[in-house]
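User: Please fill in residues for this 158-position structure.
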C-alpha cells in the first residue's frame, strides 16, 4: 500500500557544486546585463532632460553639463562591474581559488615540518641507549607500560 519512493536521481557533491557555480555565474551575468540596461535608459533620460527639455541646463561642472558627469561616473561604475563579472571571476574563479588554497596549505605544512625539525633538534627525545644510563627511566617505563589487548589479565603491580 504505502511505500516510500526512493529517490533514484542522486547527484554527487561535485555535480552539485558545478551546478551551483553555473547558477551563480548566470545570475552575475544577468545582473550585469540589467545594470547595463538601466545605465543606458538613465543616460538617455538624462540627455533628454537636459538637452531637449532644458532641465537644470544652467548647471555646469568644470565646463560640462551635469548629465555628462552623471553618465561618466555611472559608466565608470558599470566598467568596474563589467570587469569584476567577466574578467576577474573568469581568471580568479573556483579553480584559481582552489590553487591558492592548496599553495597556502603547502606553505603551512612546510612551516610545520621546519618547526618540528627545530623542536626535535632543540629537545631530542631520549632513546634506549640513554635510558640505560638512567635506571629510574626504565622503572618508570615499566610502570606505565601499556596493557596488551591479547593479555587483559596482565597485572602491572610491581
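Assistant: Residues filled in for all 158 positions:
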Amino acid at each position: 500500500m504505502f511505500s516510500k519512493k526512493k529517490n533514484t536521481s542522486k547527484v554527487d557533491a561535485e555535480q552539485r557544486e558545478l551546478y551551483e557555480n553555473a547558477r551563480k555565474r548566470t545570475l552575475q551575468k544577468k545582473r550585469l546585463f540589467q545594470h547595463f540596461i538601466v545605465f543606458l535608459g538613465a543616460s538617455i533620460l538624462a540627455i533628454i532632460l537636459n538637452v531637449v527639455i532644458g532641465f537644470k541646463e544652467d548647471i555646469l561642472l568644470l565646463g560640462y553639463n551635469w548629465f555628462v558627469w552623471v553618465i561618466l561616473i555611472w559608466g565608470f561604475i558599470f566598467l568596474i562591474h563589467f570587469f569584476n563579472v567577466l574578467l576577474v571571476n573568469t581568471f580568479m574563479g573556483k579553480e584559481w581559488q582552489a590553487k591558492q588554497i592548496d599553495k597556502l596549505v603547502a606553505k603551512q605544512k612546510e612551516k610545520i615540518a621546519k618547526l618540528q625539525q627545530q623542536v626535535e633538534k632543540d629537545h631530542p627525545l631520549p632513546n634506549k641507549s640513554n635510558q640505560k644510563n638512567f635506571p629510574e627511566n626504565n622503572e618508570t617505563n615499566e610502570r606505565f607500560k601499556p596493557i596488551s589487548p591479547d593479555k587483559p589479565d596482565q597485572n602491572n603491580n610491581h
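For context: The first strand starts at residue 60 and ends at 61.
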